[in-house]
């Protein structure tokens, strides 16, 4: 069982730039990225990326909500997933895909305040 994952180089660059722009720590930004990725209907299994970026500890990313993240991912996939598949493989895929979404949301919003408001309303927009 692994307790660490490495993001892609692109994700590392996005998270560092987002940290500069928002003053949010990379672990908070990573959780937001994972959440955005989970809102998409597109399958995550074919998503590929490198492992040349930031290293995260499992507890730092999912903490007390680890079981919830695993359950949501399994539900989205429509099948049971092993712990080895869940972390680091699927969480990393969602993190790397979600980082691009997070970056696009910030660019579209234009500033921190609009960005946070946009994220707060993001799920509501996806449901409609």
The largest beta-sheet arranges its strands as: 1-2
The whole-number mean of residue pLDDT values reads 93
The CATH architecture would be Orthogonal Bundle
Unreliable runs: none
Helix content: 55-70%
What is the general shape? globular
The structural domain count equals 1
Query: How many beta strands in the DSSP annotation?
Result: 2
Q: Tell me the fraction of residues in β-strands, as a range.
A: under 5%
The biggest sheet, with number of strands, parallel, antiparallel or mixed sense and barrel status, is:
2 strands, antiparallel
Q: Determine the structural class based on helices, strands and strand pairing.
A: mainly alpha
Distance between the termini: 39 Å
Top-tier CATH class: Mainly Alpha
Series of H and E elements: EHHEHHHH
Describe this structure in words.
By secondary structure, the protein is mainly α. The chain has a single domain (4-127), classed as Arc Repressor Mutant (Orthogonal Bundle). Helix content is 68%, strand content 5%. It has a two-stranded antiparallel ribbon with strand order 1-2. Helix 1 crosses helix 5, helix 2 (26-38) packs across helix 5 (83-109) and helix 5 (83-109) packs across helix 6. The protein is globular, with a radius of gyration of 14 Å.
